[in-house]
Design a protein that fits this description.
- This protein has about 290 residues and is of the alpha/beta class.
- It has one domain: Rossmann fold.
- About 50% of the residues lie in helices and about 15% in strands.
- It contains nine helices and nine strands.
- Strands 3-2-1-4-6-7-9 form a seven-stranded parallel β-sheet, sandwiched between helices. It has a two-stranded parallel sheet with strand order 5-8.
- Helix 4 packs parallel to helix 5 and helix 8 packs across helix 9.
- The longest helix has about 30 residues.
- The protein is globular, with a radius of gyration of 19 Å.
- This is SDR family NAD(P)-dependent oxidoreductase.
- Belongs to the short-chain dehydrogenases/reductases (SDR) family.
- Keywords: Oxidoreductase.
- One of its GO terms (molecular function) is oxidoreductase activity.
Length: about 290
Amino acid sequence: MPLAQFDGALAVVTGAGGGIGRATALALAERGANVVAADIDLAAAERTAALAKSVGAGGTAYQVDVSDAADMESFAAAVKEAHRAPDIVVNNAGIAVAGSFLDTSLDDWDRIVGVNLWGVVHGSRLFGKQMHDRVHTLPNKPDKPNLGGHIVNIASAAAYTPTRALPAYCTTKAAVLMLSECLRAEFASSRIGVTAVCPGFVTTDIVANGTFVGDEEAGERTRQRSLKALKARNYPPERVAERIVNAIVKNRPVVPVTAEGHLLRTLSRVSPASLRLLARIPAPRG
């Protein structure tokens, strides 16, 4: 059952300090949701909360490290105590690590898996439990059964697009996509929708703040090329936020975003061999 009413809803958004997270928080706030903006950067989360208040019902900022289980447990408990179980959760926090597999250290793997995968696991487990309990412990009205809510996990077109340049990033996003599919099946009986959103190239700070492993000069060249490509692509996070809102309303399972996101999704289904060949192409030099 889709959650189609945002007026009065409580929405938790991680990585809400900027980019897709901030745009999604504001899109939900504009539609009447009370937003909980969470980010490891408290000042950035506070700016988002202030903007949410200016356009909607309200906003509250929290500082949280999504990769830290204890921190996330404290955060989820604080949200329930100060507000209630959320109606919408957007697990958006993410980081990028670029470079070859052999150049990617165990510390790099720990960091990206901690944020990109464990962050989604923690958010889905803790808030999913709150949603589940609301459905199964509160009395139902025959004409208006309790809604569990909706969980949105931000994956990426990289989830179904292998490349030698992003093995760690692709792996974590593929895991987020599969986790979302599994949760959708399990949570359906609790009237909780689950959506995996898979953007392509979007103008955010993920590249600027990303880690490029291996040769330092080559990594910086790759960063600059990527930044130029994002600028040329010019796909703003607000357009992703619109797709997220639509996905919640219509209870979509998987939502590719941007033309390349759709194209790569189609290729992954009809011609996976072509993606395997593309994955072998090395990054350009210079």
